[in-house]
Amino acid sequence: MARLTTDQLSEPGSPEDILYYHMIPEYQTEESMYNAVRRFGKVRYDTLRLPHKVTAREADGSVKFGAGEGSAYLFDPDIYTDGRISVQGIDAVLLPPAEDGGKSPAAAAAAAPARRAPAVTGATAKPKLRRGKLLEGACQFMGVFVRRSRFASCQ
After folding, report:
1. Would you tell me how many other CB atoms lie within 10 Å of the CB of residue 33?
2. In this predicted structure, what is the pLDDT of residue 95?
3. What is the pLDDT of residues 66-82, one digit of tens each?
């Protein structure tokens, strides 16, 4: 189980990145997640931390997110549901992968797919971050536990 350290939280933008990595921008109940992993084996969900995805699979009769030490089980299902937002409880903090993936350049090149998208010329392209009702709800929710001013997106 991954543990949060003060070093991880003190980096600029790190609390936001961790929080966004826990948010899936679609309505998923415990039943729909469990049915998906039973049917497909492994499901990759988009997160608000673009371009990262979180992987879910069935393990021990429950839904397991992540892999290895950085994994968490769904243990408190459907804390809050209203038809638009569904809050699920997990038993650990999922840490987003490092920007470089933690691999050496040679290992990253070997693992890269054979087909690549055409290169973007000119300015570097960054993925557009999603903002909206889900982020507003998360800011209000996190305002209960942490000062809102710590999150740049909540200001």
Report:
1. 22
2. 86
3. 888 889 999 888 898 88
**Are 74 and 90 spatial neighbours (Cβ–Cβ below 8 Å)?**
yes
Whether 37 contacts 44, CB under 8 Å? no
Concatenated DSSP letters of 62-91: EEEESSGGG-EEEEEEEEEE-SS-EEEEES
CB atoms within 10 A of CB 148: 13
- Select from 6, 56, 9, 4 the least CA-distant residue to 28: 56
What confidence score (pLDDT) does residue 133 get? 66
pLDDT for 7-27, tens place per residue? 888 888 888 888 999 999 999
pTM for the full predicted model:
0.59
Domains contained in the chain, CATH given = 6-99 (2.30.180.10)
SS3 134: helix
Q: Kindly list the distances between the CA atom of residue 53 and the CA atoms of 30, 65, 66, 149, in Å, as whole numbers in the listed order.
A: 18, 11, 10, 27
